Amino acid sequence: MILHPIPPLYNKSSKILVLGSFPSVKSREQVFFYGHPQNRFWRVISAIFGKNVPVTIEEKRELLLNNGIAVWDVIASCDIVGSSDISIRNAVPNDLSMILNNSKIEKIFVNGKTAEKYYNKHLKEKLGMEAICLPSTSPANATYSFEDLVKAWGQIKI
Question: What are the extents of the domains in the chain?
Fold first, then answer.
């Protein structure tokens, strides 16, 4: 069983919550979200808000928080082989109440089908909030071009 090592990123002004499934090996090593260099998350978010792609963790934090975006993951702990979402077993959901009670979250988005699956299974009914599924920014999702991701993810800008 691997425990989620990254605390949620949010502040009292956060309006949008983006949830992944569970951090990749690279993200767990960096103790920050979307750490794999091939993950397109940071490039997509930067393009949507017209900003330079952040390099440091501090720049990544600022990009999200300055644009009202909170980030965390659906799963608090699970059995997983490497970074393979398909291998996830025994998933235990994160408690999102600390984010929802201490911010202004209006919408929840999930990054990919795995996050959607676990959100719908463990959290949707409890929270009474739908999550909008966006195409995964993972390098494993070759179906979407960068331009297609930017277009689909543009709805997070409110």
Answer: 2-156
